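Moderator note: this is an archived Q&A kept for reference. The question asked for a predicted structure of one protein chain; the sequence and the answer are reproduced below.
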Amino acid sequence: MKKTLMTFASESIVPQEKLYIKEEKNSFLTIGIPKENGEFERRVPLTPESVKILTSMGHKIFIEKGVGEYVFYSDLAYSEAGALVCEDIAEIWQCDIVIKIAPPSANEVKMMKNKSTFLSFLQLSMFSKEALEKITEKRINAVSLELISDSQNKHSIINSILEIEGKTAIVLAAELLTNTNGGKGILLGGCPGVTPTEIVIIGAGRAGREAARTADALGALVKVFDNNIDLLREIQTFVSPSTFTSTLHPNVLINAFKSADIVIGTLRFENGEKKFIVSEDMIANMKKGALIIDLSIDQGGCFETSVCPDSMKETLYEQCGVIHYCIPNISSRVARTTSIALSNHCLPLLIKIADSGNINDHMRKERNFRNGVYIYNGKIVNKFVGEHFNLPWSDIMLFLAPFQ
């Protein structure tokens, strides 16, 4: 039988070079960090260590002079990390991305360039309608740090803040109960032969859980109230099986308030959910000289008697014979710890945005990041924000879907 030989052209078996066209993306960010000008705000979103990592990757960081003075991060430390320290704040607000803690004022938005991006906490009680309208006029993208979720669909940034605030509330309560600060002279943890301090916590979320853990570790008698049974179960798992837990049953709550030395409100109200407000009558039945700390004051508070002061000089006030502490952003009392925690979240977030090429591509790719966007290209895309300001809103996917 005659063998058939198969022949191949040389070019069919030898690898050939082929021109590869790569789409170039401007992945180098310009990031501005202005100084907080609010009396109650001391935190910064990026530490010098995080700035150094970003600048080493080619990104440009512009910071306002003195941005880290309250947390003992000098301008020199930021400068040595590669940041440009600016006395002219206009340079900072002209960056592609501006990141800070508090929402922007109307004057700050005026300095921003069109179609730039702003990242901050939403804090609607501190957000003016005028500032919001100017953001929409300039077609700016506005992103809420507390609404950004992670791969497990949890709000990791705000959860870190709430954990810090829960612990800080107990430390603060221990301080305010002393005679030095006008309290009744009570040692929070008590001692043998003395009835332990009673602490009532409204809300079993992250802040409530950490407050309960800290108070329990100090020897206080802790009672936690929430209508979420799963959260109450977590309290008994992570704190102590003997921790008193209850739903927000009026009769049980009234009795708890009567014997409480400290009441801490930690309830968070997201996306327009119905608020739970403790009535003034219930507070009037508390012991004279008892203490209330409202960690929800930035959302309007969860006590009828809660009032946010205009100045840090008026941190305490008395109503119904009960001492009230209703300062927003209590984690600013431990601003350095909080700043490091925030930086741990903001650094990888900014790196991911750069890896995506730009902020718009990142929104299209990352659903978890889109959860934090409340203004896209000047359009309100968050229902709660739209309803809060009585302005029309749309689903962000109406604008992003054509690019998917």
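Archived answer notes: The first strand starts at residue 30 and ends at 33.
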